[in-house]
Design goal:
442 residues; five-stranded mixed β-sheet; mainly beta; 5% helix; flat
């Protein structure tokens, strides 16, 4: 047979075989679903990868083959592929094919990018205590890495001014602060297999001491009067406790005094005015805390105590009412005090110092009344209250009237009489009648 004839014979046989194969494929069923698997978009060089196939719902017995060039192994048959990524960076593809007798094959291709290392996810940070005090032991914590998980990360700490200055291991670094207050740098590097290193540098403020806690304040023992003795007391610091605190007072316009614990006794300046008193609290391991207070020095003493203004429970419009006081001022003899009443909405009738009689306003409402106590060498003190003025008192009892047994129209006058048990607190009662169809009508 000539070569040309032999070639034509082989070509004919090939066409026949292809036709037979296509005819056979035409009789195969279609699978339901497509090969699905979770493929990492990015992996590191030589990193192991595990991928499990699924997604085909019909038929139930499906075999999978994998084609992963440059991976190791490059081909595999089974539901789960376990392989090593290529040792060079680049973009690679994995082809998954589902097979089952009587069904057409179904394939799906996935892209994987191989990188030098995988970036960590999250935001690395160094968490420091609120107060880092010189020469004290302190702990720093690295936080914020989400992936890889904590147990797979090693932290490398660098703090050249601390002691120890470096550490490799977990997320917590315990060290001693520098001997001098100031600003120092600290670095931590997070490392994990197949992941890129992640680092952060942070400035650490080292203080000479911790901040004291509490509401630091100054209080005076009593009124501050020119030339008189007064004791100032410092209070409010809760941390550290009192036995560790010393106080230094500054009251430049006051006479040099005596300090004892948290108190300072001195003599007020000879001239009235506003003066500044300051105190500084000190304790080992803490920063100093200073508080200042403006002190008003008077040329007169303040009255101590109060005055109670009394009056009837019912105050009626335009009626007389008497107010009285009960004196509770403790540091001034009663006979040395004079009282001045101020009730601008009332009409005065009589004032005797301790009492005040006046006519109530003509309109119901709430009205102020004040009394001012004054005495030589003392600052006046004014006390006030509010008086509720009412429109009138309520009568007590019942009101009724007597009706004649027989009334004939237009014939004769009839008398109606009040049948009442009303009481008006001793006042006389006047009655007003209204009978619109009678004559007279009122």
């Amino acid at each position: 047979m000539k070569p040309s004839h032999r070639f034509l014979s082989f070509l004919l046989i090939g066409i026949l075989l292809l036709a037979c194969e296509n005819e056979q494929q035409a009789w195969l069923s279609e699978m339901e679903g497509i090969p699905v698997c979770t493929v990492p978009a990015i992996i590191g060089k030589n990193q192991p990868v595990t991928i499990t196939a699924g997604g085909i719902t019909t038929p139930g017995n499906v075999a999978y083959t994998w084609s992963a060039p440059r991976f190791t192994p490059g081909t595999f048959t089974g539901t789960t592929l376990e392989a090593l990524a290529p040792d060079e960076k680049g973009e690679y593809y994995i082809l998954i094919t589902a097979h089952s007798a009587g069904y057409r094959d179904v394939s799906k291709k996935y892209k994987i990018t191989v990188v030098e290392c995988i970036p960590m996810t999250g935001h690395l940070d160094i968490v420091a205590p609120d107060d880092v005090v010189k020469e004290e032991t302190v702990q720093f914590t690295a936080m914020g890495i989400v992936s890889p998980i904590e147990g797979n990360v090693t932290y490398h700490w660098y703090a050249p001014d601390f002691s120890p200055k470096s550490y490799t291991g977990g997320a917590t670094f315990e060290t001693n602060a520098p001997k001098a207050a100031g600003t120092y740098e600290m670095i931590v590097v997070a490392k994990a297999e197949n992941y890129c290193d992640t680092s952060i540098q942070k400035s650490i403020q080292v203080k000479p001491g911790r901040k004291m806690q509490g509401m630091f304040n100054i209080n005076a023992s009593g009124p501050t009067i020119i030339g008189q003795k007064v004791t100032f007391t410092a209070s409010g610091i809760t941390t550290p406790t009192a036995e560790y605190i010393s106080y230094e007072w500054a009251a430049p316009k006051f006479t040099a005094g005596t300090a004892s614990g948290n108190s300072y006794t001195t003599i007020c300046p000879p001239t009235a005015g506003t003066y500044t008193v300051a105190v500084t609290a000190r304790a080992t391991g803490y920063t100093d805390s200073t508080v200042r207070k403006e002190i008003i020095v008077n040329n007169k003493s303040s009255m101590e105590g109060n005055i109670t203004i009394s009056f009837p429970s019912e105050v009626i419009v335009s009626k007389p009412v008497t107010f009285s006081i009960t004196n509770h001022i403790s540091n001034v003899p009663h006979e040395d005090i004079s009282f001045v009443w101020d009730a601008p909405d009332f009409t005065p009738i009589q004032s005797t110092g301790n009492t005040f009689t006046a006519t109530a306003p003509g309109v119901p409402g709430n009205y102020p009344i004040r009394v001012t106590a004054s005495a030589a060498e003392y600052i006046n003190s004014t006390f006030a209250t509010t008086v509720t003025v009412k429109g009138g008192l309520d009568m007590t009892g019942t009101l009724d009237f007597h009706v004649p047994p027989q009334i004939v129209k237009d014939l004769e006058a009839k008398t109606f009489s009040v049948n009442s048990s009303l009481v008006a607190g001793g006042s006389s009662i006047t009655y007003e009648w209204e009978a619109p169809s009678f004559s007279p009508t009122t």
